[in-house]
TrEMBL record:
Signal peptide location: 1-20
Annotated keywords: Signal
Gene3D superfamilies membership: Metal-dependent hydrolases
Record-annotated Amidohydrolase-related domain positions: 322-394
The protein's name: Amidohydrolase family protein
PANTHER family: ALPHA-D-RIBOSE 1-METHYLPHOSPHONATE 5-TRIPHOSPHATE DIPHOSPHATASE (PTHR43135:SF3)
Pfam families to which the protein is assigned, alphabetical: Amidohydro_1
Domain of life, per lineage: Bacteria
């Protein structure tokens, strides 16, 4: 009898829990060819097609054109999206999405590993597909993300995921695409409690940290040249991809001098592909970046400039300044809970020189090229994966970015979750009678 009563209470509690939130269920594979007609298509490479026809089957784009195109619609399910806008899925790089849920609760944070040199730490195996933050990104058109660890000098190996899956294996888009290296600063800021001000002092750990990096790269070079004669070493095996070009080195650094030092160091260590992440002072060394053919993933656009004598709107127009120089540029967002705002960062850069279509490239085709996945996603082109969405209006404007349909590899996503359920619950609570 007691067991029966206990079971009843447990079932009642579980029922209340499940009713309190909307479960997001990953979509099934595409089974019917679909055709989106009538919308304005923003291809992601700067091109715009009015009154577009976008078709896809078995997860691949089969037709991209306009209404004048002579196309046989037989076999396709037609979805009329006249007056709407179609975009390739947005790409969020350099994020700890799925590794951090609530930044103030340590038990929900798994984005940092003990130790300073951790290239063998794979962020993908800690990626939590049940994170309630993931749907909030999808609502704004972010359908692909590069998940990385933080902390230490070498944080670990990043991986690229698509944001609709039951588990990390299903989410995996590209495994172990790069290594994140946090270049040490020559100086650090300390807070003076007596004057309540910050002061800049030399970083006494700078030289030891550089020596640590030299050691791991030197060991990697030796390991690569004599791998058959050495025991398996997980750290060196992970680093080896930097030297043969199969992985990218994501150099996380903001100050101009640090960027130059970090790049020269990586070149000396025979690293093939280097990407600057952060790049807060990249505008000061545009010629250097161009000469070295280095792409840049900018950090938070909505921030203050690093130097007191810089224009207050410098972060807004940084992408434009780099674009003028011909530097391949993408955008990221530091801060998982608010990273859904990535499209609006791009919108800001569009208003400060780039224009909307060039701004769109910062979070679509440009980022896809930087991450090495542009043959699959990043633009609406026949043969690429059908990862795209339909918005009521301009997807880079928070006032009109409202998704009606979203697809990952042709699979139509569920676009409601806890946030929508709460909205429906409380929308009438404070209405005036």
């Amino acid at each position: 009898m007691k067991r029966s009563i206990l079971l009843i209470f447990l079932l009642a509690g579980f029922t209340n829990l499940t009713m309190a939130q909307t479960m997001v269920i990953p979509a099934n594979p595409q089974s019917t060819p679909l055709l989106l007609v009538g919308a304005t298509a923003h291809i992601g490479n700067g091109q715009v097609i009015q009154d577009a026809i976008i078709g896809f089957d078995q997860g691949k784009l089969t037709v991209v054109g306009d209404a004048t195109q002579n196309f046989d619609k037989a076999g396709y399910k037609v979805i009329n999206v006249a007056g709407k806008h179609i975009y390739p899925g947005f790409i969020l790089p350099a994020t700890d999405l799925g590794l951090t849920e609530v930044s103030a609760v340590k038990a929900t944070i798994d984005n940092d590993e003990t130790g300073s040199i951790n290239p063998n730490v794979r962020s993908i195996i800690a990626y939590n597909t049940d994170s309630e933050l993931i749907p909030t990104l999808r609502f704004n058109g972010i359908l692909i993300a590069q998940v990385r660890a933080f902390g230490g000098l070498i944080s670990g190996s990043s991986s690229i995921v698509q944001l609709d899956a039951w588990n990390w294996e299903d989410a995996l888009f590209q495994a172990d695409d790069g290594i994140y290296l946090n270049w040490p600063n020559r100086e650090k800021r300390l807070f003076d409690e007596k004057t309540f001000t910050f002061k800049t002092v030399p970083n006494e750990n700078y030289s030891p940290q550089i020596r640590q990096l030299e050691e791991i790269f030197t060991e990697t070079l030796s390991y690569k040249n004599n791998e058959q004669n050495q025991k398996a070493n997980l750290k060196l095996m992970a680093m080896k991809g930097l030297l043969d070009g199969s992985k990218r080195l994501f150099l996380n650094v903001n100050d101009a001098k640090g960027i130059i030092e970090g790049v020269k160091f990586a070149k000396k260590m025979q690293v093939k592909n280097i990407v600057i992440v952060g790049g807060g002072e990249a505008y000061l060394i545009k010629d250097f970046l161009k000469a070295e053919n280095l792409p840049v993933i900018l950090g938070n656009v909505h921030s203050l400039p690093r130097r007191e004598d810089d224009d207050v709107d410098l972060p807004y127009k940084m992408a434009y300044l780099l674009h003028q120089q011909g530097i391949l540029t993408g955008l990221s967002y530091r801060g998982t809970q608010s990273s859904r705002n990535l499209p609006f960062f791009a919108g800001t850069t569009g208003a400060y020189g780039l224009g909307k279509e060039e701004a769109l490239k910062l979070i679509t085709s440009n980022t896809a090229k930087i991450l090495g996945i542009d043959k699959r996603v990043g633009s609406l082109e026949v043969g690429k994966e059908a990862t795209l969405f339909v918005s009521e209006g301009d997807a880079l404007d928070m006032r009109t970015n409202r998704l009606l349909h979203a697809f990952i590899n042709g699979r139509q996503l569920q676009l409601d979750a806890t946030q929508q359920a709460l909205y429906e619950k409380y929308k009438n609570k404070y209405q005036e009678e």
